[in-house]
Amino acid sequence: MLILCPNCGDRDLSEFSYVGDATVQRPNPPEARPEDWQSFVYHRQNPRGPHRELWQHNGGCRLILEVTRNTLTHEIVGTKVAGPQRAGSGT
Amino acid sequence: MSGFRLKTGGLIDRSQTRTFTFDSKKMSGFAGDTLASALLANGQSLFGRSFKYHRPRGLMSVGSEEPNALVTLARDGVQEPNARATMVEIFDGLKATSQNRWPSLSFDLLSANQLAGPMLQAGFYYKTFMGPTRKAWRFYEPLIRRAAGLGKAAQKPDPDRYEKINSFADILIVGGGIAGLTAALKAAEKNARVVLVDEHAEFGGYHRGDPREADTIADLLVRLKSLDNVSMLPRTTCFGQYDGGTYGLVERVSGHNREAMQFAPCERYHVLRARHAIYATGAIERPLVFPGNDRPGVMLADAVRAYALRYGVSAGRDVVLFTSHDGAYKQLSTLQDMGVPIRAIVDTRTAISDIAMAQVAATGLQLITGHTVTQIHGHHRIKRISIAPFDPYTSAVNGKERAFECDCLGISGGWTPSIHLTSQMGGAPEWDETLHTVLPGASNGSWSVCGSVAGYFDREDSVQSAEQTAEQVLRKLSLSRARKALAQPERKDVLNVGPVWSIKGAVGNAFVDFQHDVTADDILLAHQEGFLSVEHLKRYTTLGMGTDQGKLSNINGLALMAEARGLEIPKVGTTRFRPPYTPVSFGSLVADARGSHWRPTRRTALHSWHLDAGAEMIDAGLWKRPRVYKRGDEDLEQAYIREARTTRQSVGIVDVSTLGKIAVQGPDAAGFLDQVYSNAFAKLAVGKARYGLMLREDGIVYDDGTAWRLSETEFLVTTTTAQAAAVLEHLELYLAVHWPDLKVHVTSVTDQWAGASVAGPKARAMLSSAMPSIDFDNDAFPFMAIRHGKTAQGIPVMLCRLSFSGELAYEVFTPSRYGLAVWEELQAAGKPMDLVTYGMEALGTLRIEKGHVVSSELNGLTTAEMVGLGGMASQKKPYIGSGMTDRTAFQDERRHQLVGLVSKSDASVLTGSHLVRSPVLTTPCLSLGHVTSATYSPAREKYVALALLEKGRDLIGRELYATFPLKGHHVAVEVVDPCFFDKDGERMHG
Question: Given CB 3.0 to 4.6 Å as the disulfide criterion, which of A73, B165, B540, B821 pairs with B531?
Answer without folding.
Answer: B540
